[in-house]
Write a structure and sequence with these properties.
With about 100 residues, the chain is of the alpha+beta class. The protein has 3 helices and 5 strands.
Length: about 100
């Protein structure tokens, strides 16, 4: 029984460690990243997301550092009131995810 408890405790620690690796980037850090050309401007990235869904509006957006890679996440609502999640590599602008939000 002790072995099982230890395994669960280890698994819980591993899960919480993974969550800590994806963190929101603060606004002052975003400015530095754009100025140093480590990421594209958030306006440029937002326009790329909107280009995927013409007529959509941005509901929310955030920049996250996931395992050392900057991911820009945009939530859109299109003209038909359908919500979309668009994730992009903030450095290259590559669309990583473009999926309907459920």
């Amino acid at each position: 029984m002790k072995t099982l408890t230890a395994l669960f405790a280890t698994a819980a620690l591993a899960l919480s460690a993974n969550v800590a690796l994806a963190k929101d980037v603060q606004p002052d850090e975003v400015v530095k990243l754009v100025q140093s050309k480590q990421i594209q401007s958030l306006d440029e990235l937002k326009q790329k997301a909107l280009a995927k869904h013409p007529g959509a509006t941005v509901k929310d957006s955030e920049l996250e550092n996931e395992y050392g890679r900057y991911i820009y996440k945009v939530e859109l609502r299109d003209a038909q009131n359908v919500e979309w999640d668009v994730d992009m590599d903030a450095k290259t602008g590559e669309i990583l995810k473009d999926a309907q939000d459920h």
